[in-house]
Specification:
The complex is a heterodimer of chains A (115) and B (111). Chain A is built from no helices and eleven strands. With 115 residues, chain A is mostly beta strands. In chain A, strands 2, 4, 5, 6, 9, 10 and 11 form a seven-stranded mixed β-sheet that branches. In chain B, the strands form two sheets. In chain B, strands 2, 4, 5, 9, 10 and 11 form a six-stranded mixed β-sheet that branches. Chain B has a five-stranded antiparallel β-sheet with strand order 1-3-8-7-6, with no helix packed on it. Chain B is an all-beta fold and 111 residues long. In chain B, strand 9 and strand 10 form a beta hairpin. Helices cover 0% and strands 55% of the residues of chain B. Classes of the chains: A mainly beta (115), B mainly beta (111).
């Protein structure tokens, strides 16, 4: 999984509670991404980061926030978890050398269940 | 509205056969088209990718065919093996921050 770890790997939480997922990379890649994977939807981008403290929204950002205080760590926070946020969450990294390299490498995922 | 449409949803192929998965896109600004392979309980892994300036790219048993005018691209797996059984995702990107994925195809290769 390209030097990417995610924690926790599994979590069950109750509706309305805050949840933070962590992504840690050892590749020193500039770009980091959070996706969610749901049946019938493939993967959808939640937020991404293009550097320390530089983040922006993706396709499905409502209800999520992110932070990146160090190159190696990218945190995803659900401020108040809802059942619709039950999903598998993947972190990805990319180095994007120039305009010809868009490869993204994915972590092992975090399965989140909101009851 | 899904910007990348993938078919079929599931596919069963005999060992040694050819697996073909198709994707179609709408936005002509997409300029990078990767395929990912995902095994149960694992993250997607980049398999092969193509740019629209070429019509075909081959890596081992895996080939991408790209038809720019039809806005379609496909993955061909030659000599399919049981170890190829996985879910495959196509994707399209127009920038560093905008990768759109298809819904996935579950491939089963029967021995």
């Amino acid at each position: 999984d390209a030097g990417i770890t995610q924690s926790p790997r599994h979590k069950v939480t109750e509706t309305g509670t805050p949840v933070t997922l962590r992504c840690h990379q050892t590749e020193n890649h500039r770009y980091m991404y959070w996706y969610r994977q749901d049946p019938g939807h493939g993967l959808r981008l939640i937020h991404y980061s293009y550097g320390v403290k530089d983040t922006d929204k993706g396709e499905v950002s409502d209800g999520y926030s992110v932070s990146r205080s160090k190159t190696e760590d990218f945190l995803l926070t659900l401020e108040s978890a809802t059942s619709s946020q039950t999903s598998v969450y993947f972190c990805a990294i990319g180095n994007m050398k120039g305009t010809s390299d868009r490869e993204q490498y994915f972590g092992p995922g975090t399965r989140l269940t909101v009851t | 509205q899904q910007q990348v449409k993938q078919s079929p949803q599931s596919l069963i192929v005999q060992k040694g056969g050819i697996s073909i998965i198709n994707c179609a896109y709408e936005n002509t600004a997409f300029d990078y088209f990767p395929w990912y392979q995902q095994f149960p309980g694992k993250g997607p892994a980049l398999l092969i990718a193509i740019r629209p300036d070429v019509s075909e790219k081959k890596e081992g048993r895996f080939t991408i065919s790209f038809n720019k005018s039809a806005k379609q691209f496909s993955l061909h797996i030659m000599d399919s093996q049981p170890g190829d059984s996985a879910t495959y995702f196509c994707a399209a990107s127009m920038g560093h921050n905008d990768m759109r994925f298809g819904a996935g195809t579950r491939l089963t290769v029967k021995p």
